Fold each of these.
Amino acid sequence: MARFPVMALVASVLLSAGAARAQDGGQSEANNPLTPKITLNLHNYYAGDLSGVPDEDANQFLMRGLLPHKIGGHGQLFRFTLPVATMPTASGHHTDLGDLTVMDLFVFKRGRTEVGVGPLLVAPTAGDDRTGAGKWQAGAAGILIAPQEWGIMGGIATYQHSFAGDDDRADVSLLTFQPLVIYNLPKGWYLRSSAIWNVDFEGDTSYVPLGAGFGKVFQAGDVTLNAFIEPQITVWKDDGPGVPNWQAFVGFNVQFPIGK
């Protein structure tokens, strides 16, 4: 069951590649999380080997969206992430909704460097205790992108802390950091690294993965399509169970032009 979202994403990537014509360039804009375009992301993390859970795998399918707006007169990006998680159980696997994360980023420029900062909120929308924290959480998010002649580099940092919810569930205090490196190649191809580092101050599941993958940007009329795959391996972890020793990150992004 855990493998199905991965196969579906790979199939959609291959179909899109065949339906759209390749373009030269555009990789930086297509991979920049601060690009002010309406964006739909279909992302999937398949963990084939979990620390402390022998012979088990897990999967997390993420539906993400980005909506530019100017409420209050300043350029902002509203971003949401809704996961569908598949977790190992004593009788196999269980799939259910995870917790909804929303953030609103105020975007600034300092020379060529782009910065986005804003509040973050997590709602306990999970359908099962195994796929969510059972807590309302609040925090902040920050994104810094430094364009380069060869591509882009930067990072995404978030911090969230629980403030309400199920009293029987553990509190949450989580810091994440996602280094982002995109190296552009000819004909829309690019190399990428974007593994997310997790530091759990309340639990025991902190870990640091490193990733190396590739992708390609396509143009279908005014719509930009972006498909990629990035294997990731955990290079440091604590003793907590359930940490992925390795995982495969597969994604398909669609950017729509403003006003369309």
Amino acid sequence: MRAVIYVRVSTKDQVKNLSLPTQRKACIEYCQRQNLLVDKVFVEEGESAKTADRTELKNLLAYCLKNKGRINTIVVYAVNRFARERHSHVVLRAQLSSLGITLRSATEPIDDSSTGKLIESMVSAIAEFDNDVRSERTVAGMKARLEGGSWAFRPPLGYIIGTGASGAKILMSDPQRAPLITKAFLMYATGLYTRRQVLDMVTHLGLTTRRGMPVSGQTFSQLLRQSLYAGVLEVPSWGVRQSSNAPSLVTSETFDKVQRLLDGKRCLMTPHQRNNPDFPLRHFVECGLCGRRLTGSWSKGRKGRRYAYYRCANRSCRGVNVRRDVMHRLFIDFLGQLQPRAEYLRLFGKIILDVWKQRQQQAAELHAAAVDRLTVRRERKQRLVEAFIYERVIDQSTYQDQLDKLNQEIALAEIEERDARIDQIDIESAVSFGEFMLLNAASLWVNLSLEQKQRFQQVLFPRGVRFAGGVYRTEQTSMIFSELAVVQPKKEDLVALTGIEPVFQP
């Protein structure tokens, strides 16, 4: 009769003590007493019995399946080393039974008799009860820590665990990642960048996970929602909201701006990623009748010709169904009404200069990071050459493999460094262009790309525009321009009477 032994500890700390050797010795002695030949021993280091992701348990089940008919028994130190939840225990036992394998405990009298099965059931129930009690105590302790202002989970990216003056563990700012987290919030709060653009920027500056891997888009989205960065401990499922003892990485104002942008409650100066270049006003202009944003599409006429139309996205409304060229012509006329405020026109040069300095600083940071990466790789290549030629501590094959890898990394780093070089900008020309933009918004819009049109629209009209009866209206223009006609209560001045729909001709 052949047996497989399975031993496990729940935490990495327990790996260092005598728990594993003790379990292994007891299981081997049990097999000797029962005349069982030990075929293999599986050792699970630091994995909880509550999770199904236990590596060695999976290996054990795969081994038993591969050796079906050859393995008769699995021996564990105790039932709670096998599973801490009754359902999991029953599922695993059923899997073993289908392979003709029984479960035995080195410290508990379980077998295939009715009494043995009862004892096994009772032991597994006690193990689950013990685990539930531990979980309740753990949750209570974590909630108490949170209510006291201390973080009770794994530190978010940007924080590390340190030791306070009293010797207690506290959260501290990660000197490498915290500044990049702060920069990410500040950049996104401007409304000028998409999440992907911000993520790409801070990734180039060196933001990585704790394992040195790039931060994924999903992780970055969750990061922007983490209130701990603004000094607030919040766990809605536990009803906890408390000021944090950890240092804040962003101000509450910046965090709130980011949340409004993520929720779509604040104007984002970046284009919709899936917009059609044929319809730059799509998702920007609202229907004056129902308030839904307009969509755009192509339609075929009777003779097979295709026509572009803007329509209200609300099928039951039909408040807007207008040819694209008409919508664009009316929008250009609407832009022609914009007149820059004199005080802003005088200060525009200073505004442009401030923005230019900010962009130059960002470009300088990106370039410096790219140079650092390139320098590190060149130094690695030099050490590799010295190790092979002068010290002779590596062989030809290893040297060539590593050299090829480093040459590839250096080539990519050189490309990054060239792309990140700071362009010299004629600031006087930039100011002149800015003044032209303020004085000629309509003609400028016509010649912009889709992305530029959408950014421009958002800057000019922070709260968007509404369209009804062949007329554009807005509740607010950018502070740079004088106010246009203000929209009154929505269904009075914007729409025609019920049943009257204006007809537009190309």
Amino acid sequence: MPLVAVREPFSDPEWFYEVKWDGFRALAFIDGHHCKLVSRRGHAYRAWPYLNEEIAHWARCDAAVLDGEIVCLAPDGRSQFYDLLFRRERPYFFAFDLLSLNGKDLRGVPLRTRKQRLARIMPRARIQSRLRLVEHIEGAGVQFFKAACKHDLEGIVAKWAAGTYRPDGRTSWLKIKNPGYSQAEGRHELFEKRRPRGDHARWTKPILELR
């Protein structure tokens, strides 16, 4: 599911609001004692084999597909993008959605139900695990965004609670970024320097899922 950027936060009782963790988006494919983390472009992440092992170990299921973010954390709990990018610290996997569980496709059920089932398979001893659940609040998007900006977070994500997980590029997920986020400074220039010559990414603008 892609995220569509909007400028202003909003409050709505039919929407969930989450912290936008600053890391690498990934799908976690769990099969027994094995796990594979795959990027948005379909490439397997190979830098953190121990994270694959911990996800498979701590998830309370036989098989699942999780959507989430690979994140490094500061001592105060905020995400640290450059620690992840330059492999300075061991990352966590923050799961925010459940696409499949024990062979059953859940993409057609509402987000509210998927999140309930996701919570059931998360590890009970969260402090000891690098598999974490992305929690949410309901309705209070404006207040939540103000709190995210106050604590210098990247922003928030808004998700329609009744929405399904669309395979066709349409989405009911929105991102509202903190305009004063300190870790965003200089990032565009950094990636321009790291990008191979002639590599022009092609972007498609997703269409909002209609209710």
Amino acid sequence: MKQLAAALLLASSVMAAQAEPVTVGSEPIASFQRLPSQDSFGPFKWRGGLTLTSADERFGGFSGLIMGKDCEDLLAISDRGVWLKASLRYDGENLSGIADAQLAAMLNRKGEPPGSKIAGDAEALTRLKDGSVAVGFESLVRVGRYNLPRDGFAARFQAIPHPKDIDTGPDNGEIEALGELADGRLIAIAESQFGSDGNIRTWAWKGGQTTAFSIARFGDYRVTDLAVLSDGSILTLERRFEPSSLPGMAVRRFAASAIARGAVIAPELLLEATAPLYVIDNMEGIAACQRGGTTRVTLISDDNFNTAVQSTILLQFDYRP
């Protein structure tokens, strides 16, 4: 009977993890800046954008992003515990469309999909050096590894110990950004955890060794994601999305070498964009990849499943520091 129960459990997990094709429409975004139209923004050069739509009720809420070979393979996570896998298409050098989209539930350590919105609140995604991915969850704080290369979407959550100080943040304000540094340490940035000086609490750790430091806050922006670049620098994606102000997006940069216990790092501002002059939404995901020998930066928004007033948009730029 035990063997039968185990077999049934395995079968149900595999069924729950089946990636299902989903139809995703894409409307090109002609220009990042509305008036006057231009294609260069500091170290960033516009390479196209898409407004993504789908009738599937699971589509939306994307909060973390990684890109694969030639900036064509896209993997995103939603804050309802869903994977999005897709291929991007290009017209010459510019982003032109999306194809082969699939959705699948993220599985817990028992092989089950999230039982609630709180349990599925995946906010941060990064690829690890062994090819697997790590995900940070916010509402029920945890960090875990998924061996997607081996198990595909049948991969189960494998806990990665994390600094317990991350758990002490306000509800829905803990881990929001996650990356792996060149030395194997993970780095995590909180969304709404601020020190007594108003700076953003941040951690780098490996095993039981933790380096706690801070990032100087930029205005009223909050960090929503990060991307670790091959040169050792870190890009932070930051957003302002409050009823009392116009939506804003910022990208800043700091060097991993600046990380030290107790340090307060003031990242360099690379880009600030405010609606309606710029085509932005609730920007929550950033990823870096290589295409044609150039680093590209891709951004995705979280529509909060509120498609009446928000959109899922994908923006892409060449990045030349």
